[in-house]
Structure formats: C-alpha cells, structure tokens
Specification:
about 55 residues, 3 helices
C-alpha cells in the first residue's frame, strides 16, 4: 500500500509539472514534499530497491 501511495503521488506530480511547466508552483512543491515524506518512511521501514522490483 505504501508503494501505491508513492507511485500515485509521483504520477500526480509528473502530471502537474507537465501542465504548469513550473517546478516552483505551490502545488508542485506541496506534492514533492509529501512524496519525500512517504519515500523517507519507506526507507525508514527498511525497504530496499530490490523490494520494489519484486513487488512491481
């Protein structure tokens, strides 16, 4: 479920950047920070890159 949240946020971030064409847009910054928090949690819980490959 955590990977799903991360992937959804990443996809949303990519779409917003493509639409706004601006990396400093408030929504882009907010989503980027939220994504960073989930990625940090992912690593804190001990997941590794190999886990992502196995789950994908």
């Amino acid at each position: 479920m955590l990977l799903e949240i991360i992937e959804n946020l990443r996809s949303e971030l990519v779409q917003i950047v493509a639409m706004s064409d601006c990396f400093i847009d408030d929504e882009v910054v907010r989503l980027s920070q939220e994504l960073d928090q989930y990625i940090a949690l992912f690593h804190k819980l001990g997941f590794k890159k190999e886990t992502i490959k196995l789950i994908s």
